[in-house]
Amino acid sequence: MSAEPMWRLYLAGFLALSACGHDRPGPLTVDDDDPICTIDVSQLLAGTARDGIPSLTNPPFVAAGDETTGYLLPTDRVIGFQFGGETLAIPHNILWWHEIINLDIQNAKVAITYCPLTGTAMAFDREPVNGAELGVSGLLFMSNLVMFDRSDDETLFSQILGEGVCGLRTQTVLPRLAISEMTWEAWQAQFPHTKVVSGSTGYSRDYTQYPYGVYEQLDDPPFSPTEYDRSRQPKERIVGIEGPNGGFLAVPFLELDALGEIAVVNVEVDGESLVVVWDRAGKAGTTFSRIPQGGGSGFPLTFTVENGEVFDVETGSRWSLSGEVVEGPLGGASLGLYAESMTAFWFAWSSFHPDTQVWTQENSSDN
Prior knowledge:
Layout: H1 6-19, E1 44-46, E2 56-57, E3 61-63, E4 77-83, E5 86-91, H2 92-98, E6 100-105, E7 108-115, E8 120-125, E9 134-141, E10 144-149, E11 155-158, E12 163-167, E13 176-177, E14 180-183, H3 184-190, E15 195-197, E16 237-242, E17 248-252, H4 253-257, E18 262-269, E19 272-279, E20 284-289, E21 303-306, E22 309-312, E23 318-319, E24 325-327, E25 341-345, H5 346-352, E26 357-358
């Protein structure tokens, strides 16, 4: 058995001291040139044991009507992932209990992750850690999942930050992969041939049961003490968008819902032309690039809703909720999902990104 990494022993000692009331805020360093942690470790909390929440690796995926999918209700939320010709649904129900699913798809190694405490679903390319699997460390940073890579250079990774924060790979970034999030019923309507994680995972868990009680109620407080913007309810879901130059925008679900059953919000974030498409029935706010693929001029389109249907202003083409042209001059064109977007609880987004902009009907001329 390999020796315990010195950085991890040092961090464990610090956490033990902190538990006894000895605070040492700020990053941990051995010396100025050898950082152990790049985050404020006073905000790390030991939530459970290492691997106390077991991640999954290549669980079975089955057709939507398979008998092992009986744990899913139409209204349950799923993470939609399309890669290499595969269309997959990863339900929150599974990730409540496992938080990370490592997948090997056509020579690519990815991780689908969900933190129930911050409401954040994110998919990562594992190539920067040489394809090593990700596991649940048992630590929380600002209430959010802290992952670790199963390698000799083991490092802790913050899920929301998407980078190494403690260990030998500090500041190593895990590239984001595009996902969407909606109800199981809505995902099946958009992708009827989808596969979904089987309830036969090899673990004895009741995937029909949400294990966190009333935690998702709008006014329920965060799991651990966290500074956040109190202008909105802590558990309101928002569409969080990160621009290429460090700009942040939150588009709250309640603002979207006030626009109607189907709505669009055209936005610019650091020069990226994006549209958030809202589907009330599917409880989904999905972010697409406004520059069409496979047709069009290569310039951003502007979207609007008429009689519950999505159209672009420039050509009058009608678009599906999955970002494809249904009819019109741009037939064959589609919109790409924007990878640097996530659904999150407001408290989590605003605590990690306190300088975020917030889209509201009052501060926007859109719609």
